[in-house]
Each structure stands twice: as structure tokens, then as C-alpha cells.
From TrEMBL:
InterPro entries according to UniProt: Epimerase_deHydtase, NAD(P)-bd_dom_sf
Organism name: Geodermatophilus sabuli
Name of the protein in question: Uronate dehydrogenase
Domain of life assignment: Bacteria
One Pfam family matching this protein: Epimerase
SUPFAM superfamilies: NAD(P)-binding Rossmann-fold domains
Cross-referenced Gene3D superfamilies: NAD(P)-binding Rossmann-like Domain
Keywords, comma-separated and alphabetical: NAD, Oxidoreductase
Organism lineage string: Bacteria, Bacillati, Actinomycetota, Actinomycetes, Geodermatophilales
Amino acid sequence: MSQVLVTGAAGRIGTVLRGGLPERGWAVRSLDVVPMTDTRPGEEQVVADTTDLTAMEDAVAGVSAVVHLAGIATESTWPAISHANIEGTYCVLEAARRAGVSRVVLASSNHATGYTPRPDGGLLREVDAPPRPDTYYGVSKAAMEALGSLYVDRYGMDVVCLRIGSAFAEPTTVRHLSTWLSPGDQVRLVDAALRAPAPGFAVVWGVSANTRNWWDLTAARALGYEPADDAEVFASALVEAYGEPDLADPVHARVGGEYTLAQFDAENVEPPLPGGDIAPGSGAER
Ligand SMILES: NC(=O)c1ccc[n+]([C@@H]2O[C@H](COP(=O)([O-])OP(=O)(O)OC[C@H]3O[C@@H](n4cnc5c(N)ncnc54)[C@H](O)[C@@H]3O)[C@@H](O)[C@H]2O)c1
């Protein structure tokens, strides 16, 4: 059985993958700065910081691929974001290169291109949405994609960047009706990114088969991703509570939604708490 290192394994998406990847034939080595108390039989655990290159060289030894989720998953201060998300991604890719691990899946985000406007009609392809970050967080995801591209072109690795939409148990806003990535589809998408034959450098949206999608899934499907869920089953309750989305509202007219609004200006951003956590209430990726 091939083993995959999952960084940020204690987090929301990591916890979903630790449950789902073994059912698809992957042995999981789970890495996080936070110890996990819920590891499953056969799951290895590493407590380490992705910004520690030596620790990452140890962590990748013997695996066939890395799924890199670790980092700050929302807006924060530049020092915090650049260290955890950019330095951390460099260390993961460099450790993989040194160990000869040629496949890395990177958790990018829609916020790498958050200021990209909704097209007048039709679906938005990744090639029509180059980096256009909406926050320091989005800059770190654009840098993540750039680092991935470098390691493919210079070292011949395979790096798949997933521009994840809203990865939650259920959609909780009307924007999520277009951006939701269900737990089951998180597993399907990562599994496809791990198995796609020779993808080279790929950037794909990470959303479910939502009726209201406006991000084109053609490239993700070409990797082998077959989404099974649709946020529309939650639509009537959300629309009743919040109303139909106004497509002229920037929240619905730009890829990054509310991250493009003034509430995410630098002076409104919470600094990380000692230990690296984000202050409660500052909001997760949405
Ligand atoms: N959840 C979403 O909707 C969404 C959307 C787009 C992108 N993403 C990206 O997917 C990834 C996972 O998201 P999530 O929602 O599970 O986030 P999360 O905050 O629940 O989990 C992140 C995990 O990373 C760990 N971590 C942080 N810094 C670390 C470091 N330096 N070394 C080791 N571990 C570290 C944290 O302890 C945490 O367990 C993130 O990179 C995030 O930016 C998430």
C-alpha cells in the first residue's frame, strides 16, 4: 500500500482525508504541530512544524506522495502568513525533492485569484483566472502555486494545486451554494490528484458538482475527479434564510467573495495568538 504524508492533518480537511484516504487504498502518515488523539489503526503520526526543513526531511522519508494542507487557513498578519504558508510550502516541496518524492498536492485557495470577476456568462476556467489575490492569505496561495510551478519545471516533479472553494461539512451561506466542496468530494479530489498519471503542473478548482457552480470543473475532471455532491440540496433553507444572491454584490461577483471587502483590510486583521492560533472570531476560510 502506498503511503501519503498529510500535513495539517489535525485540521478540518486533514481530519476528513485521514478518514477517507485509507478507504481508497492509501496508508496515511499524519503531520501537524498539534498532536492528534484520534489516530486510526495503521495511521502514523508526526508532530512537527512544516517550517522546519530538517523535520520535514525526516517526515517525508519513505512516502510516495505529500498532501500539503498545513498553514493558516484565513487572513492574518503578513509575518504570520508569510512564515507559516510560504516558508512552510517551500520546506515541504524542498524536503520532497531531496527525498525523491515526486508527487505533491498543494491546498491552494480561490483567494489566490479572489479579485477575479465572475464572467458575464459561462464558466470560469483556471487559465482565465491567473493570480489576483484578495488578501495576504491569497498572496501566500499564489506563492504556493508559483513554488509548485518552479519545482515542476526545474526538477520534473508532479505538483497539483487545488484551488479549494468552501470545504465544510455543509454549506452555511448562499455563496457556498456555488463554492462548496463536500467532505466526500474532498477525498475524491485529493485521491484523483494523487493518482492522475503524470499531471506535471496543474491548477484546478476544488468544488463539488454544485448546480450553481461558476468555476469550471473540466480541468479537475481531466485529472480523474468525479464529484458526487451538490450544494443545491441545501438551497431552499439557505435562500429562505438569506435570500437569493444578488449577482451585482461583490460577494457574489468576485471569486473571493467577502475576502475582497474592506473588513479584510490589514488594519482589521487579527494577529495570531501565542502558539500560532488565530484569534477566535477572526473567521476561517469561507
Ligand atoms: N477549509 C476551506 O474551506 C479551505 C478553502 C481553501 C483552501 N483551504 C486550505 O486547505 C488547507 C486546510 O484547511 P483547513 O480548513 O483544514 O484548515 P485548518 O485550520 O482546520 O487546519 C490547518 C492545520 O494546519 C496546522 N498547521 C498550521 N501551521 C502549521 C505548521 N507550521 N506546521 C504544521 N502544521 C501546521 C494546524 O494545526 C491545523 O491543524 C489550508 O492550507 C487552507 O488554506 C481550505
